[in-house]
Write a structure and sequence with these properties.
about 450 residues, homodimer, seven-stranded mixed β-sheet
Chain lengths: ~450, ~450
């Protein structure tokens, strides 16, 4: 039985704990939850090709990471604790200039392994060579919304090229015919994309009914520059270009004012809160969560890329999410644990269009099993509080995405090769960059 | 060989990586590092009763947690996201009123297991029933500085009792004759201890040459109230009473001004920075690390108790430490990864008087082994950055304290019983508290 666990067919998950008590979960051939309940195991046993014995593990909907740049795992730890401009121009841009499709493939596989390990089943990614990212995601079995980062730098020629790149990318994803991988358009931000570019993205995405992934109000400078240059704040610019829709994920949103929170709520935009990245890059202000909540906006959770996090562990980031709000807005009661968990499950799943992020019949079987006997879950006054404030991603035993078992008892098939090849790709990339730049000035520090 | 690993005798740790390269480490019968180097294994093999094969794991000095209340692990997740006064009076104080020495014993054992799992080898604890805490620590094999929380609430009668309690506690620890467990005096804070109480603690600790563990400038209210009531800020009060010494650990220090940072540096006080607790309880200001660093003060790292963290994982807290500084002081370059790691190793070890927190001949063998093949350590542009920004405590494979192996390949002997008994103690404690208070209003939320 164990041998076929990572394969196909109906799946029975026995003896796991939900809020409602101990249950069995039956997943049908299509990866959809068919039944959840006490007696399900006895009835479904004969139908199941695969059985997971939960042994009292806690079952949760898998986590959803609504903002990352997956392949940047290759840059994990490459450049730290530097001023933003120096970090970009001296370190990140030079290596990005040397990155190959093969690097993107291995970097994305590494990111997927890391996400699976920490219970993430779906993510929203923006980067380049995204066909190669898609190939990696498909092999790993995760759900993803992928977008090609559209950056025209206010040049008409570049804009035309970016439109064609976006169309080619979207076509290639649609041609894959993988229901777990969806394309989105990725207009990078108001300071890198012209109005015409933003409008094209909005119209194209509306025509195809696909998502939009963008950055918004990350820094005060972004807001100040927009006002100085165009007399308008970034939210107004995006809104005038049609970018703010219920299919849109807007990352960061640290510098929204109250009216902008209300507008995002009215437009149905999904905000991706990235607490770790915001702290690491010193954005100077935390997401105005209280306003967004009061206005009824959808708030989801993102890690951002590994160059500004440097991990893809949403359990750790839930703790950062809740604690940054308390510190920044001077309130120990803001963003309680349960809301942090919802951000990373139900809100995220709905934002990306992968079900409702709950364990119920008819939902996709995006389920993770949590070690209830770990130190971080002891004692058990509150499972939710333990998960958000005490545990990290290592408490995840099993990760299931649309019925496919991606990790069981902390084993991900093929992980060793991924670590080896991603390491090699990262090392070669840095060597190539160094050769062109003269003597290397970046010895690893240990 | 594996069978005796947790026992006594000279220990050889083979094939581990230090900054200087791959080495073997030989630990003598007394738990002291006798030799570190390339050929050590061949020479020492016959002398070693125990051998650990490192297989290329990264060796680090064990972590040191300079401020916690260990037994509060029993309250993990018991009360969250509440205003401070309500949290204390409605939730924490009622259960603390029912706590027994046996609870303290199991709570401290649970804390020790959690610390061992995350690579912590030494800690500074302040709570009550500390003889029972000491018994737990001794069994678990960690190094600790233990203090009885001295709180006289400005009553002469209570003060006399607290002096006697402190003396009895110190005597009992000294009678244990365990070189890994040291007593300290624990004057709680300026707002809970009279001047006479503070002065007594200072004189008593000086006479015996033992440490002092106190809270200082955690909240703005503490500073404001002190100025309103006594016309002096807390640092001046502690200094006048003789509390600020090179044997002193002062926890929190969020609201220090620049002159106070200079004074703490001159006095040789060790500051315990508690970033997670400060964020969770919304202290409103982060430690002024830049001033302390410029003045040359010793800054160490603490988790605080599980009721305000809720974990004892110093690797996660190093990330919080570095990122909170960047966010709060609006600088992406403040507190780089290497400084966060030093806080939790060398600075902490020196603060508590357990060696220098380095892996070198003559130092106590407080060594942890890190899984270099984990996702969080891939790729390896910087080991330090990966540890601080990417890994959590689960990356620790092996924890060795003064030559005693406390965990190997993530196995802690007896852990299952500790989890079971601590769970039981926590449940019973809540039940006892509920019985007295009428119908319970705290069903676990899952």
């Amino acid at each position: 039985m164990e041998h076929d666990l990572y394969g196909e067919g109906p799946l029975l998950i026995r003896d796991v704990r939900l809020e409602s008590g101990t249950v069995d979960i039956f997943v049908d051939d299509s990866g959809t939850i068919a039944a959840v309940g006490d007696g399900v195991g006895r009835m479904a046993r004969s139908e199941a090709d695969r059985v997971i014995e939960g042994n009292g593990a806690i079952a949760l909907p898998g986590f959803v990471n609504t903002h990352t740049h997956a392949a940047m795992t290759l840059f994990r730890g490459y450049a730290e604790d530097m001023p933003l401009q120096e970090w970009l121009s001296e370190r990140i841009w030079p290596v990005e200039a040397h990155i190959t499709p093969e690097d993107i493939y291995w970097g994305t596989k590494l990111a997927c392994a890391e996400m699976i390990r920490a219970g993430t089943v779906a993510f929203s990614d923006m980067y380049f060579f995204m066909q190669d990212a898609a190939r990696a995601v498909a092999e790993m079995g995760l759900c993803a919304v992928l977008s090609y980062g559209f950056i025209d730098l206010f040049s008409e020629e570049k804009r035309e090229a970016e439109c064609r790149n976006t169309e080619a990318f979207v076509r290639s994803i649609r041609n894959m015919g993988n229901p777990l991988i969806k394309p989105a358009v990725g207009p990078h931000a108001v300071y890198t994309v012209s109005r015409e570019g933003l409008s094209w993205c909005a119209e194209y995405s509306a025509r195809l009914g696909i998502g939009i992934h963008t950055h918004l109000c990350e820094t005060e400078k972004e807001v100040r520059d927009a006002v100085a240059q165009w007399g308008k704040r970034p939210v107004q610019i995006l809104d005038e270009c049609g970018i703010l829709t219920p299919r849109t994920v807007a990352a960061h949103c640290c510098w929204l004012d109250r009216d902008e929170c209300a507008l995002l709520a009215r437009r149905g935009v999904h905000v991706a809160y990235n607490p770790v990245s915001n702290m690491k890059l010193a954005t100077g202000r935390a997401l105005p969560y209280h306003w967004l909540k009061e206005e009824g906006a959808s708030v989801t959770l993102g890690t951002d890329g590994c160059a500004s996090n440097n991990s893809l562990d949403l359990l750790t980031d839930m703790k950062f999410a809740a604690l940054l709000q308390k510190f920044a807005w001077n309130s120990p009661t803001i963003l309680p644990a349960g809301e942090a968990l919802s951000m990373a499950t139900s809100a995220g799943a709905r934002a990306l269009g992968f079900g409702n992020g709950t364990i119920a019949p008819g939902e996709p079987a995006d389920i993770i099993l949590i070690d209830s006997r770990a130190v971080c879950n002891t004692p058990e006054h509150s499972v939710t509080s333990n998960l958000v404030y005490s545990c990290s991603g290592s408490v995840v035993l099993t990760t299931i995405c649309h019925g496919r078992v991606l990790m069981h008892n902390r084993v991900i098939p093929g992980e060793e090769e991924i670590l080896r090849e991603a390491s090699r790709a990262a090392r070669k990339l840095v060597e190539r960059t160094a050769e062109e730049r003269g003597p290397p000035h970046f010895p690893p520090d240990v």
